[in-house]
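Appendix C reproduces, verbatim, an entry submitted by the partner laboratory led by Prof. M.T., so that reviewers can inspect both the input and the predicted structure.
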Amino acid sequence: MSEYYCLIVTYNNRWQFLSRVLERLGENVGLNVVVVNNGSTDFPETQASVLNFNTYKRIDFTENVGSAKAYGEGLKYIRNVCPDAIVWMIDDDNLPENGAFAILKERLFAEESLHGHQNIMVLALRPSRNYLTRIVAGENIEKVLSYGNDFLGFSFKKLAYKLLPKLNMKIDSSRTNSITLPYAPYGGLMFRSGVIDKIGYPDERFFVYADDFDFTSRLAKIGGEIIIEPRAVVHDLELSWQSTSANTSKLPLALRGSPFRVYYSTRNFIFFQKQRLVKSQLAFAFNALIYILYLSLRAALSGKFAGFAVFLNAVIDGWRGNFDNSKYRP
């Protein structure tokens, strides 16, 4: 019989979030928990905070080694102690609603039975992730996600969706309970540990950002399924930097975000796109050229030359596959 492991990565002294998540997870009987501590020093867990788990393991790093390596080390530990584990990956600020764990387990088993194989991942709905709620509501996946030859979400096809409302078609409502994704975030993701033998571990070169998309997209490439389960809901206690910055300015986030976040999110997503999503390198390059020209104009008009320089550096490194993770570190 499979054992159940919840894998969490924490960093930057975020016990105020993690403590609430551990308390909620303790309501699930028989759950094993692995916490990877990415350099946090303020970690006052007590026996009481982990008492309700079947087992509790903490893996400590003295510095932030990035989400890719941290999640990878956690997965290696679970794979070693329980080769047939069912893994639930969540972020340190992901607070599951009551029953989310049981719902995901039920959906995982149902999909495995339906498809006749175990190359399945099921994903909880995170309402703070706008792209997930839009897809669950029925919007066209190719419109919502960066997909195919889009460059960081830009393409003339996407532009047509905005300019021509008739193209904003809904998917068949009968499919809203069986929506498959080409890639997914770590937070809320459940799968069997045996899947790792087929797709490998997260790519440590990414350091942070888009390593989750790269990791999960490999399953789709081998014919597996990544399925949203909207009845299982996980709430983010802290909104992402993209979400908190979205409505504060009309200036593109690439020009006003922190150099660290802009550089790594842009570099990694471009590399991920080129390796996993792009169908026509020529079309991708054309979309990239148009978007870069647009952003350079916005930079000139706003005086955000330093921000544009960071973005352009990220584009070049992502295009070339240059993973120098010493750049723009705080």
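Strands lie at 4-11, 31-38, 55-61, 86-91, 94-96, 120-125, 189-192, 225-236. Additional entries are available on request from the coordinating office.
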